[in-house]
């Protein structure tokens, strides 16, 4: 190497220029050095461009490249894969086109001019949102434009459609939350760690009479009575210690000094570090509830007094009845003795005194009967269906508006002997108590009539059953879907002094039992906590028979024809029901479970009616009906079950059920239900099937 030259860090450095031949060599080396530097600079530039292209290639943002032509046209040069993915188009089709040609909706915006300015002047430009839509692309985009070199620029963009939609939904949710909070009738609040109110919704003004601004910044204890303030301060301190939810009742004072009873739901509030910085929650005013409870307490006292009076009346009536029986013997024998004695006998005066005292006792017994409300029943022949029908309006206005009253009349019903007014009173008492058992919740009250053959064992298990004889009885049944009763409550249900606000029963039940006993009837109660109550009243059937329209049709010899699919897992039921259907003129196709029912339906698709059991092995009635509806079943369907319609009905809501026949049933009942289903069920079946 010539003197004065050195290589440092891969660079050729001229330490000292010589003269003569040495100087010429150095100048030559300098020229070579400059060439090497230029080549390496070009290589570094190419490497940087390759690296940049690699970054653009894998960048998740979409990138468009443009070149500014001398004539001012901004020409599309290309795009990275992310741009194709984000826009959902092949951007290669736009290469060589101007920005207005590639993306026509941009022609009327500022974006092309902005891009040209970036390519020309190198000043970056960005915008938070560009709404774009044509027949290929639609969405909202965030755009950043920057210069890639003289006359060249790139636009990086991201699809923010989902984000904008989420922001809009969030804004809407916030607005909804604000509206709910501002319009809520419940009290919504927040306190700091010292118990000072930091937020109160407008409902506080309605409850307390203060303006919200008057309460903010003050402790909640400032609005409490002293005894509650001390207790709740301890509760608040425990709440601040941890993230607990507490529910408690308390008493505050309104601005006018009157008490307001509140139920608070409180929760600790923590900051980002997990420190408890306050509490928040809701509260609602239970002042009206408290007043109602106090009023209910007064009413319960009145009811208790009424029950005591009723009990005394029952006692008085019983005593009067027994006394009258005794007095019949006393007066009768006194009269007979007087007939046997002559007027001169000294015993006549004594017997006269006995007769006079007995008649006074009889008058006293009459007064006791009047006090007890016990009088002679106006005995007549009664159609129980008619009594129920005539009482329907009174029942509907007497029960809760949330209660659904369902009436199920027996097709053929014997008459009973009794007082229609008293029977109507029994019905009213049972239905009103059923409504009270619903406790203000939505529910169903089913009133049914029927007829049963009762044996000694059946009657022995019922109230007043000991004095009844086996035979045919007319049934009045009231079933509700209310809270039900435990065994202890059932045992005391008809006690004149018994009442319980849990079941809502007791008042009037003793009177109902007395009326039923007066009609030589009986009562049974079936109930279970959480599953409702069924009370069945039996009246001895008279010799005459009251018939409904369906019963007259049965007696008129109504007959049907065609196939009926009978589905039941009990062989005995299938056998007797098949015989009944045959007697009506039908051909029974039987299936032992839902699986066989589907097979039979596939083989006998022309069935006119389906009689379907509820509980069966493999596939139950509900699932089988659903599958048959899917397979094209349009025939009416009768549900047959040992459960009541009250329990079965909700399970088949939406399936197009044409009727319900409860086991056990007789020929007349089945014929009535089959005919009614065939006459009215087809229209319902046509609309069946869950959507």
What does this structure look like?
With 691 residues, this protein is an alpha+beta fold. The chain has 21 helices and 24 strands. Strands 13, 14, 15, 16, 17, 18 and 19 form a seven-stranded mixed beta sheet that branches. Strands 4-3-7-6-5 form a five-stranded antiparallel beta sheet, sandwiched between helices. Strands 9-8-12-11-10 form a five-stranded antiparallel beta sheet, sandwiched between helices. The C terminus is likely disordered.
What is the number of beta strands? 24
Termini distance?
A: 96 Å
Radius of gyration: 47 Å
Q: Beta fraction of the residues?
A: 25-35%
Write the CATH architecture name of the largest domain. 2-Layer Sandwich
Q: How many domains comprise the coordinates?
A: 6
The CATH topology of the largest domain: Heat Shock Protein 90
Shape: elongated
CATH class of the largest domain: Alpha Beta
Helix content: 40-55%
* Structural class label: alpha+beta
| Biggest beta sheet attributes | 7 strands, mixed
């Amino acid at each position: 190497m010539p003197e004065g030259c050195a290589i440092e860090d891969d660079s050729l450095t001229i330490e000292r220029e010589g003269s003569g031949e040495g100087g010429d060599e150095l100048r030559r080396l300098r020229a070579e050095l400059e060439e090497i530097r230029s080549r390496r600079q070009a290589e570094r530039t190419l490497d940087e461009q390759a690296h940049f292209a690699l970054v653009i290639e894998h960048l998740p943002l979409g990138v468009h490249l443009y070149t500014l032509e001398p004539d001012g046209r901004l020409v599309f040069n290309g795009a990275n894969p992310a741009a194709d993915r984000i826009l959902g188009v092949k951007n290669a089709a736009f290469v060589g086109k101007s920005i207005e040609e590639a993306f026509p909706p941009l022609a009327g915006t500022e974006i092309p001019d902005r891009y040209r300015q970036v390519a020309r002047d190198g000043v970056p430009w960005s915008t938070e949102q560009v709404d774009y839509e044509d027949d290929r692309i639609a969405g909202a985009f965030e755009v950043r434009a920057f210069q890639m070199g003289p006359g060249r620029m790139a636009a990086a963009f991201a699809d923010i459609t989902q984000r904008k939609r989420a922001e809009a939904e969030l804004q809407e949710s916030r607005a909804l939350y604000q509206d709910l909070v501002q319009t809520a009738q419940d009290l919504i609040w927040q306190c700091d760690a010292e118990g000072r109110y930091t937020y109160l919704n407008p409902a506080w003004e309605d409850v307390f009479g203060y303006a919200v601004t008057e309460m903010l910044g003050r402790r909640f204890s400032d609005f409490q009575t002293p005894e509650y303030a001390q207790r709740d301060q301890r509760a608040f301190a425990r709440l601040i210690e941890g993230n607990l939810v507490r529910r408690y009742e308390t008493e505050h004072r309104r601005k006018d000094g009157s008490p307001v009873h509140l139920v608070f739901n409180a929760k600790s509030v923590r900051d980002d570090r997990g420190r408890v910085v306050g509490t928040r929650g809701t509260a609602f005013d239970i002042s009206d509830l408290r007043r109602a409870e106090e009023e209910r307490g007064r009413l319960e006292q009145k009811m208790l007094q009424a029950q005591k009076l009723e009990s005394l009346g029952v006692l008085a009536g019983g005593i009067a009845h027994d006394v009258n029986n005794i007095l019949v013997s006393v007066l009768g024998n006194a009269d007979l003795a007087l007939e046997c004695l002559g007027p001169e006998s000294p015993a006549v005066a004594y017997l006269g005194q006995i007769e006079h005292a007995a008649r006074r006792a009889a008058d006293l017994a009459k007064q006791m009967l009047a006090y007890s409300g016990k009088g002679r029943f106006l005995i007549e022949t009664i159609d129980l269906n008619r009594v129920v029908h005539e009482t329907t309006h009174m029942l509907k206005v007497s029960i809760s508006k949330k209660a659904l009253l369902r009436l199920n009349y027996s097709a053929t019903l014997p008459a009973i002997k009794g007082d229609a007014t008293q029977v109507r009173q029994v019905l009213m008492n049972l239905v009103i108590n059923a409504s009270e058992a619903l406790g203000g919740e939505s529910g169903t009250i089913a009133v049914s009539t029927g007829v049963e053959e009762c044996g000694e064992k059946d009657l022995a298990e019922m109230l007043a059953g000991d004095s009844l004889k086996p035979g045919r009885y007319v049934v009045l049944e009231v079933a509700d879907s209310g809270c039900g009763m435990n065994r202890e409550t059932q045992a005391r249900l008809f006690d004149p002094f018994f009442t319980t606000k849990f079941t809502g029963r007791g008042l009037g039940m003793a009177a109902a039992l007395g009326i039923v006993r007066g009609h030589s009837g009986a009562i049974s109660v079936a109930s279970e906590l959480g599953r409702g109550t069924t009370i069945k009243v039996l009246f001895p059937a008279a010799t005459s028979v009251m018939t409904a329209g369906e019963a007259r049709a049965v007696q008129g010899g109504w007959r049907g024809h065609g196939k009926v699919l009978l589905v039941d897992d009990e062989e005995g039921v299938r056998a007797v029901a098949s015989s009944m259907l045959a007697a009506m003129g039908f051909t029974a196709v039987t299936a032992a479970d839902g699986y066989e029912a589907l097979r039979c339906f596939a083989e006998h698709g022309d069935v006119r009616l389906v009689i379907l059991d509820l509980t069966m092995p493999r596939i139950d009635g509900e699932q089988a009906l659903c599958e048959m509806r899917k397979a094209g079943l349009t025939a009416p369907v009768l549900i047959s079950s040992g459960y009541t319609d009250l329990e079965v009905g909700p399970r088949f809501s939406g399936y197009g059920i044409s009727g319900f026949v409860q086991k056990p049933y007789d020929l007349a009942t089945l014929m009535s239900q089959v005919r009614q289903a065939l006459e009215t069920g087809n229209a319902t079946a046509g609309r069946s099937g869950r959507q």
